[in-house]
Amino acid sequence: MTTAPSLAKLFAADAEQLLRTLGPQPQAADLAPRLRGLLDTLPSRYAQPSPAAEREGRVRRVRQLVDAVAGGCVAALFGAFATAYTWPSGAPTGRPRRRLRGLLGASGEPEPVDAAPVPVPVSVDARAVLDAVRNALGKVDQVLADEQAARRRLPPRPWRDDRELVGLLRDLLAAGQLRSGQDALDRIDQLAKDLRLLHSIAAVTYDPADPTHGPELFDFPDGWDPASRTGLTTSQPALVSTARDGTSARPRVLVRGQIDFAPEPGPAPAAEQDT
Fold it and tell me: What span, in angstroms and rounded, lies between the C-alpha atoms of 261 and 249?
């Protein structure tokens, strides 16, 4: 059984390495960009085990949620509190040494100061910060698991609600009503074109010269010799996805095809004798 990926577990391993690199009390300005860079790598790594056709959408969804964590945790921890301010010895006395209250009086008007505030680098508890981010990613894992469970619970779409499928069935039944084999064949040819152009699905017929046309794409008959690729015929084509996500050169097999032995040729007709 394949273990479901976990953002929190992926992050935890990298967080330990980051902690060893920066130490337990790094400056916030050093930790913030490293943490953001680590979070940016998570979506693609999380989605890697997913089927190729689902990977792009999964990366997009995970990135949305991880960006929320990055914006909430990183920005809140470092955007507002990463820098403290103090004043030189000539600053007004008796007032709080805070950025805003030290610059604004009770009326909200700026008070004169002898010198501009001086930023002071702030050290942070790296373990506490990383644990907070890991806990937030654990919540994201739960959201993703709930969404996946909801998708599995979705009922299949009834055929009656698929207008394209209903139209196909009508055309084939009409061909049968008229006993028109040519009409049925024409509709099937159109279906093959629609599948490729509109749905990125291709019907693949066995080609003995194509090395990719093997057991991963077709079911072969009992007694078939893999060393021999002749004497075979396609009884059912394979259906493959022609969509590409940039992760694999091979198409994804939707339905495997069926290969049978080609029928033996019948005896040649006897030549007519001149009389």
Answer: 30
